[in-house]
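Late entry, S-(P-nitrobenzyl)glutathione complex.
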Amino acid sequence: MTPTITAFERSPDRGKGLARDMRIRWALEEVRQPYDVRLLSFKAMKEPAHLALNPFGQIPTYEEGDLALFESGAIVFHIAERHTGLLPDDANARARAVAWMFAALNTVEPPIFDRSLAKILERDEPWYEQRLRFLEDSIRKRLGALSARLGDAEWLDGGFSAGDLLMVSVLLRLKASSEILDEYPNLSVYVARGEARPAYKRAFDAQLAVFTAASKG
Ligand code: GTB
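Prediction complete; structure with ligand written out below:
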């Protein structure tokens, strides 16, 4: 059965692949699972039909037969469990890959996300500079530890996994808006390695095509 995901009708990132449907597209491309996309306006995302799929009125969602999911991490995990290629067979290695998925979303993404929000919403506050410094210190703390653990390895724990897919996705958000990633050469190379994967490129092109079409229309 072909799953359907949701994405922005007109992504605020203007096709840079930073919205969270990108990680779902990438996972589906890695496992070679074709998918359909339902595009939503901001208004439609807050209407009952979409709220039934995601109580928070956000994208992405995932529908497959009678299964409906929200939360990009849960969706990537579901895809990784149902197909080969994104989680190792060995039970312990699989558990470690899942730990990296959580680390990406729970430990590394929060200060990166908060920094992006602060830059948009808190710029005029008197404490903005102090807050930005705090968030950037938090990011550096996480990246320092991540960089030390990755060392010269290609991926975080053996072969490419859903943990790498989410970690690279999270770091790409930072790369798009700051020079901080450049301070960690092995992480920059790690992110470039992810972006060079054919599945990433197919996913990126697909989301860019949506933005390009919306700009023409
Ligand atoms: N925890 C949820 C998940 O991982 O699925 C978070 C989902 C989420 O944040 N969705 C955002 C959304 O629907 C889009 S991805 N926002 C609309 C709303 O809340 O009303 C976040 C995002 C948005 C825009 C950019 N950008 O422009 O660069 C990047 C990321």
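The pocket of S-(P-nitrobenzyl)glutathione is lined by residues 12-13, 18-20, 45, 57-60, 71-73 (CB under 6 Å). Will revisit in the morning.
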